[in-house]
Specification:
single chain, 81% helix, 0% strand
Length: 286
């Protein structure tokens, strides 16, 4: 049985010695939130219809969608340097943006394709039944925090299938990024290595995935609950906000940023553990 405590200690030491890991994740989490706030403000004040709002959202999101694999590759490079005991600096991040771009894009495409093929029929069946029986749409299960997921599954047992499949995919591919960087593997070779190591180290992997599901879900729910508070002043008047509205907005954004920082800290700790575990016991697996 693989011992977990030594890897937890190493992951904590790695997290403490490399604040750049949490900082990079904070930027990656906060920027989309900020863009969402600004987009919601613009949509609300411009009075866009639903189709116009969707078009504006797609136009604004396009550059971020293109840049996302580069940013993810840079973060992967930072973790790769940190777990090897090197300094996780800007040079490593910059090199990772280009080095891992296409592998990140390929990995994301692989996971999304598997998820859609496996869970799509269930979602479609539930959506059709709800449209007929209730006249309502399918709940946003994929983007829901953990507690909302559980409530959705209790209300509609068929949704347990995509819910469990999502956890299984997370379990099997959780070491994909370390496999790419530490083993210099291709997209598919890294996926195979991740699956082999996840099965071999099933207990620490299951515990990590479940802990992340609960903690990250709770933090995500907290951020979602705070975001509307940051948007309230935007809807109360003209573009030039009054002093009170500006103060309320700054306060709400400050609280929300603190919540996003907690998300980043947890994500950095979680990833540090996974990378440490794979580096110590799985880098040569497959």
């Amino acid at each position: 049985m693989m011992r977990i405590r030594p890897y937890l200690a190493r992951a904590l030491a790695m997290f403490r010695s490399e604040p750049a890991l949490a900082l990079a994740l904070f930027v990656g989490l906060w920027v989309p939130q900020a863009v969402g706030w600004l987009l919601a403000r613009g949509v609300a004040q411009a009075g866009f219809h639903q189709a116009e709002a969707a078009g504006a959202a797609a136009l604004v999101s396009l550059p971020f969608a293109i840049a996302a694999p580069a940013f993810a590759g840079g973060v992967m490079a930072l973790f790769g340097e940190a777990v090897r005991g090197r300094t996780a600096g800007w040079d490593a991040f910059r090199d990772g943006t280009a080095r891992y771009y296409w592998r990140v894009l390929g990995g994301w495409t692989l996971v999304v394709t598997i998820a859609v093929l496996v869970t799509g029929p269930v979602f479609a069946a539930v959506a059709r039944r709800e449209a007929v029986e209730l006249g309502s749409g399918l709940p946003g299960l994929a983007a829901a925090p953990s507690l909302e997921l559980v409530r959705a599954v209790l209300a509609e047992p068929a949704l347990a299938v995509p819910f469990l499949v999502g956890l299984l995919i997370d379990f099997l591919f959780v070491y994909w990024a370390p496999a790419v960087v530490l083993g210099e593997r291709t997209t598919f070779a890294a996926a195979a290595s991740s699956m082999r190591f996840a099965v071999r180290a099933w207990l620490p992997t299951v515990l990590a995935v479940l802990a992340n599901f609960l903690v990250a879900g709770a933090l995500h729910a907290g951020v979602r609950a705070l975001v509307p508070g940051a948007l309230v002043p935007f809807d109360e008047g003209p573009l030039a906000l009054g002093q009170a509205a500006r103060a309320a907005t700054v306060a709400a954004l400050g609280v929300t940023s603190a919540a996003v920082l907690l998300q980043a800290v947890w994500e950095a700790l979680y990833r540090s553990y996974l990378w440490t575990l794979y580096h110590g016991a799985g880098v040569n697996a497959g």
